[in-house]
Design a protein that fits this description.
This protein is an alpha/beta fold and 323 residues long. The chain is 23% helix and 27% strand. It is built from 9 helices and 15 strands. The protein starts with a strand and ends with a strand.
Length: 323
């Protein structure tokens, strides 16, 4: 069967939730024609922005599970396009805050609510708690086939707190050992050009590059630049329409257990990243769809890259993946 997946790459601005929603719906409305995707994946904290400085700043945007504007958007998308929708939101549960993501069914019901397990320092700045359940998996039924599915949010792909051994591959090993077939990753991943010690002139330089408006990227058909992340081509100057190949290749490598072991059913990984500049942070965009085929070759990664969006664009990537 062919699984049709869409990654909806956004640049959500803190304080502009309604405008963020409007852009998301505009991209979908202008790009999608039947047959609609089976899955539409949006970024981490898809409509609220991510780089909150403290618990007070994030407080107006917290949502209880099944309530609030993020759930309303996911419900609207799922029922309009008869698809599963995955999107991130800042969740309030009793006195705790989580960085969470929904999987919403075509009827608008919540199939799964996942809470981020490995926190980035920004999550801690705005008061996040780690998931008490750790990594989880759940079943999604598409075209009468059941897919064992897992959601990982951004830092979940990295070594725990950047102190665990790189080769521990906690999330990827969880997915491999639990025979997960479909991995969905909403993220707010930093661009490889970004540095934690950026000076103001660095911020000003890249901010200026984002001032010209660029059209939404509607990447529906296979295009030449989709192979650029494998060649690791980097334009001589920062170009918003090109993928951040270093980041996209790093994502492939973080699923090493998928290319070091044999398995019979292919494993599909869809990563939806945000783009743009938020405060002193610059994101990598480059939302991508991969398939690991389960043939373990020495010194060869058996992976298909079905496409990547530009590092600085808003837009959508739609691909049919044989599974």
């Amino acid at each position: 069967m062919k699984l049709r997946i869409a990654t909806l790459q956004l640049n959500p601005i803190i304080g502009q939730v309604e405008e963020n929603i409007k852009r998301a719906l505009t991209i979908l409305d202008e790009s999608l024609k039947p047959p609609f995707p089976d899955i539409i994946l949006l970024p981490e904290l898809a409509i609220t922005g991510y780089n909150f400085a403290n618990p007070q700043q994030v407080a107006p945007y917290l949502e209880e599970q099944g309530k609030g504007k993020t759930y309303d958007l996911g419900n609207f998308i799922s029922t309009k396009y008869n698809c599963h929708t995955v999107l991130g939101y800042p969740e309030k549960k009793d006195s705790l805050i989580y960085n969470s993501a929904y999987c919403i069914s075509p009827t608008g019901s919540i199939i799964h609510n996942y809470r981020k397990s490995f926190l980035y320092k920004t999550d801690e700045d705005w008061g996040c708690s780690e998931s008490p359940s750790g990594f989880t998996n759940f079943n999604v039924t598409i075209q009468n086939r059941v897919f064992k599915t897992a959601i990982g949010i951004c830092m979940d792909l990295n070594p725990y707190k950047f102190t665990a051994p790189f080769e521990k591959y906690e999330f990827a090993n969880y997915c491999y050992s639990n025979e997960v077939e479909l991995v969905l990753v909403p993220t707010a991943w930093m661009n490889h050009a970004w540095k934690d010690d950026w000076k103001q002139e660095d911020v000003d330089h890249y901010t200026k590059l984002y001032e010209p408006e660029e059209p939404f990227e509607y990447n529906i058909d296979l295009k030449e630049k989709n192979i650029l992340i494998l060649t690791q081509y980097t334009p001589p100057t920062y170009t918003r329409s090109y993928p951040d190949s270093e980041t996209a290749v790093y994502w492939i490598l973080r699923f090493a257990p998928f290319h070091a072991n044999k398995f019979t059913k292919p494993k599909v990984v869809a990563i939806c990243n945000r783009s743009g500049i938020e405060g002193r942070a610059m994101y990598a965009g480059s939302s991508s769809i991969y398939r690991y085929n389960g043939r373990a070759f020495p010194e060869l990664i058996d992976v298909n890259v079905f496409g990547s969006l530009g590092q600085g664009n808003e837009g959508i990537l739609v691909r049919d993946v044989d599974v």
